[in-house]
Amino acid sequence: MVIVIKQNYEQKQLDNLVKWVKQQGVDADLIVGSHSTILGLIGDTSKLDINLLRSLDIVESVKRIQEPFKCANRKFHPDDTIVDVGGHKFGGNNFQIIAGPCSIESEKQVIEIAKAVKKAGATVLRGGAYKPRTSPYSFQGLKESGLQLLLKAKQETGMPIVTEIMSVSHIDQFKDVDLIQIGARNMQNFELLKEVGKTKKPVLLKRGLANTIEEWLMSAEYIMSEGAKDIILCERGIRTFEPYTRNTLDLSAIPLLKELTHLPVIVDPSHASGLSRLVKPLSLAAVGAGAHGLMIEVHNDPEHALCDGAQSLRPEQFEDVVKQIDVMLPLVDKKWGL
Ligand code: PEP
Ligand code: MN
Prior knowledge:
By secondary structure, the protein is an alpha/beta fold. About 30% of the residues lie in helices and about 20% in strands. It contains ten helices and 15 strands. The chain has helices at about 10-25, 50-55, 105-120, 145-155, 190-200, 215-225, 255-260, 270-275, 275-290, 315-330; strands at about 1-5, 25-30, 35-40, 60-65, 85, 90, 95-100, 125, 160-165, 180, 205, 230-235, 265, 295, 335. The protein has an eight-stranded parallel barrel with strand order 7-8-9-10-11-12-13-14, surrounded by six helices. A four-stranded antiparallel sheet has the order 2-3-1-4. Helix 3 (about 105-120) packs across helix 4 (about 145-155), helix 5 (about 190-200) packs across helix 6 (about 215-225) and helix 9 runs parallel beside helix 10 (about 315-330). The radius of gyration is 23 Å and the shape is elongated. The chain starts with a strand and ends with a strand. The model has no long low-confidence stretch (mean pLDDT about 95). The structure holds phosphoenolpyruvate (PEP) and manganese (II) ion. Manganese (II) ion binds near residues 271 and 308.
């Protein structure tokens, strides 16, 4: 971390700052030039409050040299992390597809869709039991009974399952869930992140509606600082000024994340666009940008879906997307993960 000191500082103020920094366990190197004075901080600066430093009278500006995320940082873990979800590997040169309905609606619905997406090539089944809806009057999910139906579909098809957790109080219900999803709205629910981290189960961490990549990695850090290692990041579009799509898919996040972190990165083109006809082009774009996988909403009757029908593919449309991806994978040095 580098602190630029204002030109007309008082020596006593600077001495106090150096003393305070050292009390925090960090070394300080002072460089006094003819036009500027710089304090270089050496050591673990992650605990220093950068905004507090910026607010000091004698401080002109503060710049971090090292990212504040340690566990998720590729610098300290150069090899890709491979996350195993019920025997299917995410990360490295493996490519995986998670698919299923937005919400679990009935036993028949979830099992029919599960069989169809498995046949088309999906390896992990998704389905929401607890749904984060903007309106309290919208369908809120079948909750615990929905989870039971998803577990039934797991038994019936042998597919591992992913579903969203919304409350710390539900953790016990998720013990047979293979991959716990933290949704966009809860990306910064720090208590939930910590409690889910304590389970040490694989976590699918979606990007918040309006969060930076660094904030997203700091959320992964919350989970990892509890000892969990298996985090999959999911880019699902961010809020912009563009109303034609539900969100704007941030494709540049994929190659950037691959530089910054060793964690696998997948893309959800369904929530990113909100439109089923955009799911195929965005899926292929995500493959081209280097994603390790996709999460796609599929419904056997999108017109009557209780949630997100407009962005859901029919099973035959999903099959077509998988076929196109199959053609692309060798071009991006990836293979279907086992
Ligand atoms: C979901 O995947 O069901 C969902 C609600 O997505 P997001 O949290 O990205 O909005
Ligand atoms: Mn949805």
